[in-house]
Amino acid sequence: MLETEQLTKKFKDTIAVDDVSLVLRQGESVGLLGPNGAGKSTAIAMISTLMKPSSGDVKLNGKSVLKKPGEMRRVLGVVPQKIALYEELSAYENLKFFGRLYGLSGNELEQRIDYVLELVGLADRKKELVKNYSGGMQRRVNLAAAMMHEPEVLIMDEPTVGIDPQSRNHLLETIRKLNQDEGMTVLYTSHYMEEVEKLCDRVYIMDHGKVIAEGTKEELKAILSDQETVLIDFDQSYPELFTKLSEIEGVQQATAEEHSLKLIIPKGTRLLAALFHEAERYGAQVVNVNVQTPTLEDVFLRLTGRKLRD
User: Which part of the chain is the ABC transporter domain (predicted)?
Assistant: First the structure.
């Protein structure tokens, strides 16, 4: 339904997006992951026709939209990272304004406002000024505004940043309903891997402007199918030991967090014994050991060398 072909964006000597090709099939929910500076937001700006690419193409149903951006804008709803609302207006007034921009009027406009407010759970507070809403409520109105014209494709750029758990859960459930129950096509970026795990069918991973991996969640996890994740909890932090353990031959990846160390190691090796022996030499007390199948977060860390929130 929507695709990019070798999409590239240069800013003077910096290549923000480098030869990126994405495909969104109708009714899919696709995750776009990458650490800060990976090029996700620039790619979204070009897909949304808000920024012209240096080269490459954006296609809707097989036809380029670069010369006719209105065709994309009619079917596209965008929920940006930053709140895009007028704080001095109520939720109802904001939605009425955006609805009119899309050409809605009269009963059609009123019915659509009622529907999207019900969808995001704010029908009973529609007359309150947006500036008096919590951050989570504002983000829900942000989604409602993107839904006013009944878009076929919804792009969401980190829509749950900095909101309370209740609003976050409500947003995620709303997105799931739109995708799974109503068949809406979704492109979703987030700094929370669990959201992508819950919502997305396929995932693209970007780093330094390039797509470095793509596939279903199961296909991406298969990258580390011959490895396992070992989480070791200690009684306290041992920085020197953690560095030593990460340098043991065979350790593929090591991540230290407070009193814990997460390691990715090959399956069927005797590395665990070597790890425990080294910990004993340092006089470190091991509190708990958990061996598990690598997660999507582990795959991301292995491919980019950074956590998703970095």
Answer: 2-233
Q: Which residue among 220, 250, 267 closes a domain?
A: 220
- Contact (CB, 8 A) for 212 and 219: no
> Cα–Cα distance between 253 and 262 in angstroms, integer?
8
What sign does the CA torsion over 71, 76, 80, 83 have?
A: positive
Select, from the ranges 113-117, 222-226, 233-237, the one with the highest average predicted confidence (pLDDT). 113-117
The answer, as to whether pTM is greater than 0.90, is: no
Distance of CA 244 to the CA centre of its chain: 34
- Residue 84 has a pLDDT of 92
Report yes or no on 303 lying in a domain: no
Domain that holds residue 138: 2-220
Tally of residues, the chain = 310
> For residues 103 and 195, what is the distance between their CA atoms, to the nearest angstrom?
33
Report how far residue 189's alpha carbon sits from residue 29's, in angstroms, rounded to the nearest whole number: 11
